[in-house]
Structures are given as C-alpha cells and as structure tokens.
Amino acid sequence: MRKFLGLAALAATLVCGTASAQQINVKVGVLTDMASLYADDTGPGSVVAAKMAAADFMKDHPNVKVEVVSADHQNKADIGVQTVNQWIDVDHVDMIADVPNSGVALAIAPVIAQKNKVFVASGPASSDLTGPKCQPTTVHMTYDTWMLANGTGKAIVKNGGDTWFFLTSDYAFGHALARDTSAVVKANGGTVVGEVAHPINTSDFSSFLLQAQQSKAKIIGLANAGGDTINAIKQGAEFGIIAGGQKFAGLLVFAPDVAALGLKTAQGLMFTETFYWDLNDGTRAWTKRWDKERNAPGKLPSMNMAGVYAGTMHYLKAVAALGSAADGKAVVAKMKAMPTDDPVFGKGSIRVDGRALHPAYLFEVKKPEESKYPGDLYNVRATIPADEAFRPLKDGGCPLANG
Amino acid sequence: MFTIFGVPSGALFGQLLIGLINGSFYALLSLGLAVIFGMLNIINFSHGAQYMLGALTAYLLLQVTGLGYWPSLIIAPIVVGLLGIAIERFFLQWLYKLDHLYGLLLTFGLALIIEGVSRHYFGTAGLPYTLPDSLQGGRNLGFMFLPNYRAWVIVASLTVCLGTWFLIERTRIGAYLRAATENPTLVRAFGINVPRMITLTYGFGVAIAAFAGVMAAPIYNVSPNMGSELIIVVFAVVVIGGMGSILGAIVTGFGLGVIEGLTKVFFPEASNTVIFVIMAIVLLVRPAGLFGRRA
C-alpha cells in the first residue's frame, strides 16, 4: 500500500513538473543616478523605460515573468559595486541595466562577468567598455565616446573649427571623451591648444571658462555631461564666449539638457545622438507611452532611456529563446547572434565585442523662432549609418575581437 | 605682460577676481551660519536648503507673478525668512538647552525633506533664470571680460556683509543680541523680549541665505541640489573662520574664495578639496578657528 501511494505521489509530481517547465523568471536591476547631475538624463526615466520593456515583453510571452528593481549609485563606484554584489548574491538579479557614469560602469563590469550575469550598459559612455576593458557579459548600448568624437568632432573640424580647448570632467568618462575627440581633431588637420580638468558636478565654471577664453581656441570642447555641460554653457553666455568669437562643442548633450538650457542659450549647438523623440513615427509613439508612464509633464526621454528599453527588450528575447537567464555568457552570445529591432533605434545588431550597432544622427539645436511646439528642439543635419558610426572592431583592442 | 609661475599675469588677475566673486557667496552664506551659531548655538545644516529656497522662490515669482530680479531680491528673503521663523517657533525653540547635536540632526533632516520635495517637483537638470536686463553685458578690463552681474555680486555681498557686521557689533540692538546670547536670564530681567529676538535672528540668518540664493539664480543652475553642493564648503569656511565670529566668516569667505580661484589655475583637479585641506591644517594649529573666541 505504501509503495503504491509513493509511486502515485511520484507520478503526480512528474505530471505537475512537465506542465510548468516553461515558466521563466527574470529579474532586471536598473542601477542609475536618481538625484544628482545625471538624474534627468537617466534616473527615474530609465526605470520607466525598463518597466515598459518588461510589460511589453510579458504581454507577448505570458510564460516569462519579469521583475524590475532599481537603485541609486550616487555616482560612486564603491556604492555601485556594493549594490551589484548584493543584487546578484542576495536578490537573484539576472541583468544590470543603465549605469550612467563610466567610473561606476568600469568598476562593476568585471564583477558581473565574474558572477556570470549580464550587464546591459546603456548609460556609460567610455569606449573602453568595448575596448581593452570588454567582457563577455557586457553589452554596450546607445552610444560611446568614440561615436560622439567621430560624429561631432569630425563635423565641427570640417566646418572650420580647427583649434580646440577642452573642458574635461575629471574622471574616466571625461578623459575618454577628450582623448577620443583629440584623436579625431588631429586626424582631420586640427590642433588641440589646451585642456583643463574640472571635478565632476562643478557648479561654477567661471575660472575654467576664463582659461578657455585666454587660450584663444576657436572651439571649446565640453568633455563633460549633464549638469556640468548645462552650467558651462550657461556661464559661457555670461562671460561673452560666443560674443568673443569662440564656439562651444557639446560633446555629450541630451534632450533634457537642451530643454533645461532653453533654445535661446542652446541654439546652434551641434552634437551626435542616437535617439530623438520626434525622429519618426516609431519614436513618437514610444515617447507618448513613456510620457504617460513617467507622469511628469514637460520631461523628455533621452537616448539613454531609449537604450534601457531597447537593451532590456533584446535581453529578454535572448532569455526566452534560451529558456533560462542563469548563464550570462550564453545569454549575451545569443544577444550577439540575434539582430536587434525596436521602435527606438530601428534595426541593428550587437557585435562580438559587445558593441550595439545602429545609426547615429548629427543634430543641431533649433533657433527659438524655428520651434513650433514644446519639445521641438532639434534639426537633423546628417544621418551616420551603423557601420560608420562606431569604432571599427579591429581598432578597439578588445581580446574578444580576435576569438 | 609678465608671467608668474608660468601663468600670464593677466590670467592670474582674472582668476583672482573670479575668486573674489565666488568668495562673495561663501562670505554671505557663512555670515548667516555664523550669526545663527553665534547667537543661537544652533548648527544650521538646513542653510544650504534655505539658500536653494531663495533661488527657487525667485524662479517661482518670475513664473507665477512675472516679478523680476529686483523685486525678488527683497521679496524672496522675506518669504524664506518667514519660513525660517516658522521653523524656529515650531522646532528649534525646544532644542536650545540640549546638546548641539540635536539642532544639527533636526536641521539636517529638514534640509533633506526640503531638497527631496523640491527634487520631486522640479527635477535636477535645473530651471532657467535669466540675468536682469540692467545687468547684462560687461566691460573688458584688458586682462579679462568682467560681466556686470558678477561685479554687482561683489558689491552687493560686501554691502550686506559689512552692514550685518555693523548691525551686530556696533549698534544697540546688536549689543542686546550679544548680551542675550551670553546671559539670557539677566537680559530678560531688563525687560527685553529675548525669545522674540532669537526668533528674529534666526529669520534674519535664513533671509541672508535666501538673498544669496536669489543672487545665485541667474548665474548658477537653479536646481534642488544647489544648496547641498555649497553647504559643505561653507561649513568648512565657518570652521576655519571661527564658529561664532562674524568678521571671521566674512574675511575667511572672501579669502578662501581667492585661494580656491588660484588653485583652479595651478592645480584645477584639487579645486574641490583645497578648502578642506586648509581646514584640517587650521584645526591642527588653531582649533578655535582663525578669528574664533571659544577654545
């Protein structure tokens, strides 16, 4: 009797087992800057983008359950590493997304690789993430310093801006951006006359702008982002930089920054981005939904937030194809094998070194009289196709490129 | 021109002038802190948030009522000063007999609340606030281009600083205030309403912070974070100058602004930390601060 009951119980569990075998659980962690200089370019907007990707994916794949958590790294590498360790070891997070601030990103990438989870880096800029510091578990979305330097730098030098002075944010990102842009400037016949490094999150640029003025360079390259770029441009207007004949080159500018500056101050700025809310019907429809979810009127989505959405969607597709999120390297290999397609970036792919490839655009900020409705900020000056926008695979120095 | 340590003299004078301008903000804010600590024995950690509220009020006055910079210079300090009086009446008055730490914790908590709420409604990218038309443009001094507005900042803050110092150190009401700090019971025995004086003093210190905020609005980013970035440096300034000394706060504020400006020329990466290095040295050599009275 006991043996019969035991066999019946075993049979029952086996039947139940096969019925629920397809259920996949995934946890995504959005590590971002919630309150400091990058908060409007990423922050809560990125969390919304990740939640949108999760909801869209779960609608089409009812057997996958996606949970999104978030945390603030406060632009500190030690807090970033601590959060990632806790997320992976204790909270069973499978994928880390966003992470604006290249210093934090470069610190957590090897940790995530060692624990065999996935890093969808849509926030940081340093091209080292697909260069010497590449990892088999890192996918670098949205942009990088090489793309910015090549898109913006080349266009400005060709336009006559051949002497440059850099205002560099004194950490990994600023130095990478200044380095990549200097290389482009010199390769196109320009010269770099000087550079000054300022601490991240500086509120007063008057001293640095004075040094830039005295260098007499035609172009003042802003190798910084977020609140730093806004402050530098605002105070530049006050010190008569433009009136004195010099021009600013915004090397990393997001739509929320332009909105904060206002068109009167920002008009004429030229820079490279990979997403603009008003670019086509796909981006417009996505932005409308993002706006509803974000529920903060007047805010615009940045290319980083679009990157979180696209990266998370592609990651979830790879997980569903494999059936499990457990092996990070395998998931990333699947992500590289599948072409990408989403409403924010269009069609693209992920290269063997982790670099996501899709078109980039050279934008110019409209004059106030050209803007017809709120959020109407950019004119498209050029489209850079995916195979030209990013650094060639052989130039990166990533060990994965040879394998 | 000639060069000093490899930097052209013109560039150096320009940086000194910029340093003086930054020093004006340090002086104004540390003056408010010194007044509040000297008179009330409260370490007002919400000073940065109150500075931010001044700038935010100026922005809101412009958006909602259309009032520009000049009316805001008067109205914003009054509004924020009234808020300061409310804080003092509801929260701070219970803490005077306790350890300094309670005042610090309370005001720190208030700062977090004020900044968090502002961040929720206004984000962190910053709000636009343009220079007033009468102060636009600038003059070319030969070695640098000095914006008119920044010249106004130096003049205004020097006036407010010296006016406050004069009020406290050289007038009768200032004398009552200083006496009330040392021996409130005795001063009350003379018929002077000490609690009301203390409340008004706190409101006055907060109003100075808000005044600095309005002056900062056109040139620095009006954002909920603007206070927290500045307040740590201002505390260092106050500690170096001596916690209770008004003159110390003013002189140290301007002086450290100049030193920071020079650091930005010769070693810009350290410009964030030079004031704290000086603070460490001063605390080792003269723990009471350069002008401090208490040991």
End-to-end separation of chain B: 47 Å
Distance from N terminus to C terminus of chain A (CA atoms, Å) equals 60 Å
CATH class of chain B: Mainly Alpha
CATH superfamily of the largest domain in chain A: Response regulator
CATH topology of chain B: ABC transporter involved in vitamin B12 uptake, BtuC
Describe this structure in words.
- Chain A has 403 residues and is an alpha/beta fold.
- Chain A has 2 domains: 24-143 and 279-358, Response regulator (Rossmann fold), CATH 3.40.50; 146-273, Rossmann fold (3-Layer(aba) Sandwich).
- Helix content of chain A is 43%, strand content 20%.
- Chain A is built from 14 helices and 15 strands.
- Chain A has helices at residues 2-19, 43-60, 77-89, 102-114, 145-158, 172-187, 206-215, 227-238, 255-261, 263-266, 281-294, 303-322, 328-337, 386-389, and strands at residues 24-32, 64-72, 95-98, 118-121, 138-140, 163-169, 191-198, 219-223, 247-250, 270-273, 340-342, 346-350, 356-357, 360-365, 378-384.
- Chain A has a 5-stranded parallel sheet, sandwiched between helices. In chain A, strands 7-6-8-9 form a 4-stranded parallel sheet, sandwiched between helices. In chain A, strands 10-14-15 form a 3-stranded antiparallel sheet.
- In chain A, a hairpin with a 3-residue loop joins strand 11 (340-342) and strand 12.
- Chain A starts with a helix and ends in a 14-residue tail after the last helix.
- In chain B, helix 1 (9-40) packs antiparallel against helix 8 (194-216) and helix 2 packs across helix 3 (69-90).
- In chain B, the strands form 2 sheets. Chain B has a two-stranded antiparallel sheet. In chain B, strands 3-4 form a two-stranded antiparallel sheet.
- Chain B is mainly alpha-helical and 295 residues long.
- In chain B, a hairpin with a 4-residue loop joins strand 3 (138-140) and strand 4.
- Chain B has helices at residues 9-40, 47-65, 69-90, 100-122, 148-170, 172-182, 184-189, 194-216, 226-241, 246-266, 274-285, and strands at residues 3-4, 7-8, 138-140, 145-147.
- Helix content of chain B is 71%, strand content 3%.
- Chain B is globular, with a radius of gyration of 19 Å.
- Chain A binds chain B through residues 35-37, 39-41, 43, 170, 196-199, 201-204, 206-208, 210-211, 213-214, 226-227, 230-231, 234-235, 238-240, 244, 256-257, 259-262, 265, 296, 299, and chain B through 8, 10-11, 14-15, 18-19, 21-22, 119, 123-128, 131, 138, 144-145, 147, 149-150, 219-221, 223, 225-226, 229-230, 261, 264-265, 268-269, 271-272.
